[in-house]
Amino acid sequence: MQSTLMFHGIGIPGHPMEPGEENYWINWDQFDAIVDYCAKLPPDEVNFTFDDGNQSDLEAARRMRAQGVDGSFFVLVGRLGAPGYLTEAEVGELLDLGMEVGLHGRNHIDWRKADDATLNSEIDRAAEELGELCGRPVEAVAIPYGHYDRRVWTYLERSPFRRIHTSDRGRSRPVDRFVRREPVMRWHDIADVVELIAGKASPAKRLRQAVMPRLKRLA
Q1: How far apart are CA 180 and CA 210, in angstroms?
Q2: CB neighbours of 173 closer than 8 A, spacing ≥ 6?
Q3: Cα of 58 vs its chain's centroid, Å
Q4: What domain range is 208 assigned to?
Q5: How many domains is the chain built from?
Q6: Which of 50, 179, 180, 195 gives 20 to 30 Å between its CA and that of 143?
Q7: CA distances for 37 relative to 1, 15, 26, 181, 198, angstroms
Q8: NodB homology domain: which residues (predicted)?
């Protein structure tokens, strides 16, 4: 089993934040401690993922590369070049550093509330545009807010993405197409993150982790 950590922004945001988003921003000391710890682990034990395409992603990638750590960066196509977000050139720098660039949608909306045309724009067309920018097909996607229902799940199942990242807590097998992730929050210290990586959870939490994705797929 693998643990996949989910990061958002690091340091000081360069743009206004959505309500509650501040809880997903950590400082650089926290991040460096996590990278230092994970660099000593087997490479298939933990995955680093980043949502939203914040400009801090590039510095994070540089620090990771210095330690030999890889990551996947899920960008919002509609925010590329906006204040506080990655530019198209910086996406190229991520690729040059050996990082994966994946899709987080176009405008960071709840896909459950999107009509068919909007869903196509947010996923299919946005993936095509990002693929053209990267010069390669986009193989991975992360669901905004972690929100999905039966319709979104079915849509993604039929998509060409090889890996679909959720915000469902817990660990995943390397062969799983739908990947669970553990968010790293501003109050987490390195000991908390070590527990997340180890997959430690109470029986009640493990039951909730098993049941919640099934309930979402039935909604």
Answers
A1: 11
A2: 1, 2
A3: 14
A4: 3-218
A5: 1
A6: 195
A7: 18, 30, 16, 18, 12
A8: 44-219
The per-residue pLDDT for range 50-79, each reduced to its tens digit, is 999 999 999 999 999 999 999 999 999 999
CATH code for position 52: 3.20.20.370
Tell me the per-residue pLDDT of 164-195, one tens digit each, with 9 for 90 and over.
999 999 999 999 999 999 999 999 999 999 99
Model-level pTM greater than 0.85?
yes
In this predicted structure, the answer to whether residue 85 has a pLDDT above a threshold of 90 is yes
